[in-house]
């Protein structure tokens, strides 16, 4: 199977030697899947960080084959799918942890939420999916899934890399995130198992339910954190602040969330996302920094209005 050069370069860049080895054994991996599940692999979906393709099983049923470089992210995704048991999300049909293989429910027609052009409608659909997904974190989830606190420690790497400075990121914004994160974490209540990456392209139209999620990261935190990925995605070039505020209002009302905490978490996460761009050399951090300032301005306005 011919893999796109961009996908090959991504696998090598992210996974280094493990990625090189995985690519070298890729044809054998496909053969193993065909043999184990008696399936036929079709043309893959557009590829980013993992291989995913529709497959046809021996009995004629459709499914999706997802192949990942084995590691921590594969484990947390698999465990999240097991925990959700198909509630609000594509079902995990089978897996092979050692080889990084998942066989998943095929969602048809499989259009992404980006096809809903009315932004308020799309936001309400996403809120409905979140209602089905969210479940209180159990003791068994801790140690399996990362927590928001662990994610926030990424900013320590920023300081270490730039000898106590913030490199290309504004010192003022980083310092504010460093203040907000501990405060939010210390006042967090009712931790839940979150999807962790629930944006427009990870919500697909389906038959079993009108809309279902795919590709969970698996994260433990409060529910206000879940909406951030959606807020950061599929925004127009102009009027971002107004649309973002409307999305926040809808999520707060539909899910009974606190608007001030959504905006504070979103600001912190945007700074963290900007650092990830720098750390992984994965595109520009400008968009994340722009959204951080929007979230911070909306938060200040909200505090002033409510105060």
TrEMBL record:
Keywords: Kinase, Transferase
Highest taxon in the source lineage: Bacteria
Gene3D superfamilies recorded: 3.90.1200.10
UniProt-listed Pfam families: APH_6_hur
One annotated GO molecular function: kinase activity
InterPro entries in the cross-refs: Kinase-like_dom_sf, NH2Glyco/OHUrea_AB-resist_kin
The protein's name: Kinase
